[in-house]
Amino acid sequence: MQESAEAGDERRPLSSLDRAYRILDAFETTDRHLTLGEIALRTGIPKSTVHRIATSLVEWGALDRGSGAGFSLGMRLFELGELVPARRVLRDLAMPFLEDLFEITHETINFVIPDGVEVVYLEKFSGHRRVDAPSRPGGRLPMYSTAVGKAIMAHSDQRMFNRVVNHGLTPLTKTTITQPDVLRRELAEVAAMSVAFDRGEAHAGLSCVAAPVFAPGKRVVGALSVCGPDDRFDAGRAAQAVRAAALALSRQVPRPR
User: Would the N or C end of the chain have less CB density within 10 A of its end CB?
Assistant: First the structure.
């Protein structure tokens, strides 16, 4: 019996590629490894099929087989991720500015790019005073709940705003903005100041300040942020440094070929 696709045409049977993707996508941030049964439960794919495809993924290097019955993500995925153009070009351009911001603030520095209604963290730079935060390289967060996301939304067209709102403004903390009108007003302020704030909206007790990064033609391609715990971080004081770093990085972004 073949499984059906969950999205789009539910009558369409899953291909081997669909199943392989679902197996890889079953891994979450906190997972070090997953057993055959856990993967089958999360994907809805029979154990025998999971075993067959996972064995092929191990041979290719996308999965590693642990000493027990579990599987973990393999180094081949990391190698491929390093080849993604946005990561190679933009990350390499951004690194000196991330380092400069860290030297100025000694707080956690992030660089993100937009992807759909979310931001993807290309780089996270922190020192000994790092704090618990939901961001991580390769991780995603909703645009509306993050300073970096709001910096991008404020400099994007109306279609971006509509997509984010239609996807849902689910609260992540007590201070997450969940009303479209409130979000619209805040984005207008962000556009005027070229700096955005996250006041514990993605993670309670953690504040961030961010500024947009542009490609030639004023096309927003990402955002830089500085984050720190509320008890020691002054986002207002860090705003000027973030804005200056984002502006300097924007001057380095090449025109698309």
Answer: C
pLDDT in tens, 88-135: 778 889 999 999 999 999 999 999 999 899 998 988 887 666 666 666
Residue 151, number of CB atoms within 10 A of its CB: 36
The correct CATH number of 85-252 out of 3.90.76.10, 3.60.15.10, 3.40.50.80, 3.30.450.40 is 3.30.450.40
CA atoms of 129 and 4, how far apart (whole Å): 48
- Residues 243, 241: Cα–Cα separation, whole Å: 6
CA-based nearest residue to 86, from 121, 110, 126: 121
pTM tops 0.70 = yes
Contact between 194 and 211 under an 8 Å Cβ cutoff? The reply is yes
